[in-house]
Amino acid sequence: MKKVILIATLLVSSLALASGGHFHPKKVAKCEGNCTEEQIKAAVPVAIKELANWKQLDAKWETAKVESVAKKDFAKGSKTLKTWVVALVDEKETDASKNKAYLFFLEDGSIFRTNKTGELK
Q1: What are the C-alpha distances in Å from 21 to residues 53, 55, 56, 101?
Q2: Are 94 and 80 contacting, i.e. CB atoms less than 8 angstroms apart?
Q3: Most buried in the list 15, 22, 33, 74, measured by CB within 10 Å?
Q4: DSSP state of 93
């Protein structure tokens, strides 16, 4: 009986920890160590597809233009996160509040977030 309870507990806990619906950083840039601006820019199409697969970004952004690629540090408490921030512009969208999206990459080329503000909270 103890074995049955143990197996059931392990099964339930593994399902809870492995549930879908959330995005984990994924390396999409082809670089070793820290990426360059060019490597990050080249990884944008793959990053958009990855984010679209996870429903973090609409697939319409695949046709957007890269407006800028910049290194940016974000401070949270005593820690600093060094990132690449890519600004995308959808030139087909006339509403200025909806025509930009930002992609956030870690220095190693892993895509980890997207939003409409360009800031990490």
Answers
A1: 10, 8, 10, 21
A2: no
A3: 74
A4: -
Check residue 38 and report its DSSP letter: H
pLDDT tens for 43-54 read 999 999 999 999
Given its phi and psi angles, is residue 118 left (phi above 0), alpha (psi -120 to 50 degrees) or beta? left
Give the H or E element holding residue 5: helix 2-17
Which tokens sit at 87?
């600004």
Q: What is the CA radius of gyration of the chain?
A: 18
Q: Can you read off the two tokens belonging to residue 31?
A: 């670089």
C-beta pairs of 86-89 under 8 Å, 24+ apart in sequence: 86/40, 86/41, 86/44, 86/47, 87/118, 88/44, 88/48, 88/61, 88/64, 89/64, 89/65
State the chain's mean pLDDT as an integer: 86
Given a contact cutoff of 8 angstroms between Cβ atoms, the answer to whether 106 and 74 are in contact is no
